[in-house]
């Protein structure tokens, strides 16, 4: 038994379990939550209130988790506790009907799941395997989780999605137990004196604060796009089944980008890559805002939606690694994700008001303006390119 465990520790199979089932759990809970709540008789206002808890709770929990991770350097334990807590709370969620209880549970579950994302990103970059070969497992996991949730809702029982959440949380925890944690190559890169640098000193770095502002604009626009793009497609006359297919394939488009990340992510500067992310998002939103037929809109969504958001996710890791001291990496990534959660709340509320007053196309032109501002601001960033994050 001991020799079997030794072979499992650090194996690629442990990373398969970790990433596939972590992103599976994220998708199986979040992808059809709105449909589940509507089926439970919740009004649109109640539904929006309950789902807003994810962003509000993430703003608080993400920085705390990142700080705790940098202080203890125990990613496997922290991730396991968060995942198992989310899985068990999911069963409580399935038995609850009170709006306030569902609000509380949704916030706890989604913030616990979201808090693991920076851990997964850092772990993928520090393992002995290439970032792309690990992170692509999450793409497959998310796509399969969304499909499994939809199948359960239609053919088994709506509450079964919470059983799948618990099962996937347990399997991902088993995977985390076998990974190398942060003991790979990135942790051996020489850092500035950790004893003399506060873990929160990066919050006084103007360059990091400018990056946070750019990330705020990108994540808010991207998050609003994730929510409103299905509404845009149905408004153009596409049936819901076709919309689901478009979203499924738009997710899979990111696979080549992740698999080949080691070919270009460390060679190109963070400023250039961030600018490309904003450029792709700007082009995407302009297409959504001006085109009135579904075909060009679908083409833009397939080519640019997941590509831009995935590029941003990788660029965030690269920029943080090149700006922030290594002992504060997880804390900084968690702060970035907390700011992203805040921007998502604000952009969603603005989006609803603009779309109701004008149109969905008009709101996408507002998002295009935000993307243009972000593109101009990211040109002011001063980012080195000394840390190799994605190459073997």
Automatic annotation (TrEMBL):
Q: Which InterPro entries match?
A: MFS_assoc_dom, MFS_trans_sf
Keyword entries, A-Z: Cell inner membrane, Cell membrane, Membrane, Transmembrane, Transmembrane helix, Transport
Q: Which residues form the Major facilitator superfamily associated domain?
A: 13-364
| Annotated transmembrane regions | 12-37, 49-69, 76-93, 159-178, 208-228, 240-260, 272-291, 297-320, 332-355, 361-381
Q: Which domain of life is it from?
A: Bacteria
Q: How does it sit in the membrane?
A: Multi-pass membrane protein
Write out the annotated subcellular location. Answer: Cell inner membrane
**Chief location bin:** membrane
Q: Which Pfam families match?
A: MFS_1_like (PF12832)
The name on file for this protein is MFS transporter
Source organism of the structure = Neglectibacter timonensis
């Amino acid at each position: 038994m001991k020799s079997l465990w030794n072979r499992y520790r650090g194996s690629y199979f442990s990373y398969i379990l970790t990433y596939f089932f972590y992103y599976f759990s994220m998708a199986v809970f979040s992808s059809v939550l709105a449909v589940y709540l509507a089926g439970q008789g919740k009004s649109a206002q109640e539904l929006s209130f309950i789902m807003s808890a994810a962003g509000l709770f993430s703003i608080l929990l993400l920085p705390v988790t990142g700080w705790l991770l940098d202080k203890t350097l125990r990613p496997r334990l922290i991730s396991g506790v968060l995942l198992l807590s989310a899985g068990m709370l999911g069963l409580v969620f399935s038995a609850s009907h009170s709006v306030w209880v569902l609000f509380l549970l949704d916030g706890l579950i989604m913030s616990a799941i979201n808090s693991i994302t920076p851990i997964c990103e850092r772990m993928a970059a520090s393992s002995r395997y290439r970032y792309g070969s690990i992170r692509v497992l999450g793409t497959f996991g998310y796509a399969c989780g969304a499909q499994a949730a939809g199948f359960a809702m239609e053919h088994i029982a709506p509450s079964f999605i919470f059983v799948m959440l618990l099962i996937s949380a347990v399997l991902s925890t088993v995977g985390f137990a076998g990974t190398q944690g942060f003991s790979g190559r990135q942790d051996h890169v020489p850092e500035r004196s950790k004893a003399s640098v506060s873990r929160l000193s990066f919050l006084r770095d103007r360059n990091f604060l400018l990056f946070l502002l750019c990330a705020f604009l990108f994540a808010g626009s991207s998050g609003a796009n994730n929510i409103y793009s299905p509404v845009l497609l149905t408004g153009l006359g596409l049936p819901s089944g076709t919309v689901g297919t478009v979203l499924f394939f738009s997710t899979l488009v990111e696979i080549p980008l992740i698999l080949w990340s080691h070919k270009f992510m460390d060679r190109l500067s963070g400023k250039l890559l961030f600018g490309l992310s904003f450029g792709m998002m700007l082009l995407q939103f302009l297409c959504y805002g001006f085109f009135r037929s579904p075909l060009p809109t679908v083409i833009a969504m397939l080519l640019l939606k997941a590509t831009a958001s995935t590029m941003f996710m990788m660029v965030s890791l690269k920029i943080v690694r090149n700006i922030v001291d290594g002992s504060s990496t997880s804390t900084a990534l968690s702060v970035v994700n907390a700011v992203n959660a805040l921007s998502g709340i604000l952009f969603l509320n603005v989006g609803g008001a603009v779309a109701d007053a004008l149109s969905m196309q008009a709101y996408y032109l507002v998002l295009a303006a935000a993307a243009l501002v972000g593109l101009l601001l990211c040109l002011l960033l001063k980012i080195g390119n000394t840390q190799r994050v994605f190459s073997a």
